Fold each of these.
Amino acid sequence: MTPADSASPAASAPEAKAPPAAFGKGFVLDAWYFVALSRDVAPGSLKRHELLGEPVLVGRTKAGQVFAMRDICPHRAAPLSAGRVVEKPGEGETVECCYHGWRFRPDGVCAAIPSLVEDQAYEPDRIRVRSYAVRESQGMVFVWITSDPRGAGEPDHEPPQFPGVVGGEAKLVEWMDFESHIDHAVVGLMDPAHGPYVHQQWWWRSEHSMHEKAKAFEPRELGFSMVRHAPSSNSRAYKLLGGAPATEITFRLPGYRWEHIQVGPKQVLALTCLTPITENRTRITQIFWSDHWIFNIAKPFLRMGVVAFLKQDGGMVNLQNEGLRYDPALIWIDDADKQAKWYQQLKREWSKSRAEGRPFANPVKPATLRWKS
């Protein structure tokens, strides 16, 4: 099997797991979620995040180790992120709770309870805060969310590697929270037909420039790609890059979409990370890298465009929610909605493969899709 067809099976999947959730419900588990850029996690810092409805502290020791744990002190429920990183003899660096000074190592094990006296035989290391596996990769921090309710088990695959992370640190980062389940955010992101109606900038496209398109797609690891092609003639912004740009657009579970553009030896990577905060809120983070000379010149205009796109998509999500609160049946059509169908198939297969302890089998098959936009 190729990487596009399979992934490692769960090492020790629980015997009974819930069936795959319906569209707009539940989350992809046993997966890496983007939480922050590495540069935003400073040494000695503690920051509260919310992932899949759970409070998660993401911090870095003064020595540089990134860690994550549940952001609730088991003593009296104060957020550990409100504390500080301290170093005591024999303990190493720990997170000190702001309420009673309980200290926890980066792996979540309690190192000390200051209120105990010497003849009290309570063993602090029997107390543990749930910890999360963390990886730093390509200047980003990812947190592993397991399906095991005990929080046990090590990740059996690594975070995705993205092509085109060039030119040092990210050139441009923008984010926005959408009042939406991640499923609706994902299919909105990959929807090829909404652009002329929702994004009507002069430099992009409009309903008056719509024409038929045919794009080839292939399976990729945990997802699929619109294979490398020349940008659409009615996408005027690409002309700023000059030369003959060729772009490939990829989606990967649980919520990553990236467009990798090559113009001769130069590259642009536009990465979108979807991070579910709660059942009804999703953070959309857009990150750009490039070693193309024009990128620095165009950056202020690109920022305005990215913000405009996010606001327009966010506004449409709010309108969509007016209908979704009545839980209507949704109609999916080919070929414009085929990517949305693939996403749902990928989610179902991922959940089933984990529950059954077998390799993931990518349900996406090579195809050419046609639509107007």
Amino acid sequence: MNSEGPSAEPSVQTPSDQGNLLRAVAAGDRRAFAALFHHFAPRIRVFLLRAGAPSGVADEIIQDVMLTVWRKAGDYDPDRASPAAWIFTIARNRRIDLLRTERRPELDPHDPALRPVEGEDAETALGRLELGAKLLRAIEDLPKEQEEALFETFFRDRSQGDYAEESGLPLGTVKSRLRLAFARLRLALEEAT
């Protein structure tokens, strides 16, 4: 590695030096690992900071990356990538993993939105089902053009303007059909209750 003496830091300047150090790390050489760490840690830090990682997060990622280098140095294949490319790929992947976990926060079991819905009593459930059936029959009884306007704008969640443009109808006609459909539905439901 280096012929400057036993206490000299191993050279990390060339890809060949770096490859030799990785092989030494794979064999358990702590001095070789220290040389790689001192060479790559500041460079990885700059890479991560430029990628938008906060300083503390960058430091954590560096520790994780270098621990991976220590553990996986034997997996390094010089035919696939340079030592630097291999190490920076590990850093990039750790950053991506971190971003994924940030986007999927852990669920809070005390979140009120996650509480089970209070069960409704049988009478309320039956009333809700009967009302739904009446509404369905009332929609089926609408004139075809009103039913279509209702389906396209309400159930498919399209704007009235989009439906008017696609169907070739004037916007006023679409609005009129919807107004008539809602009036008929309201009347049908009032008569049914």
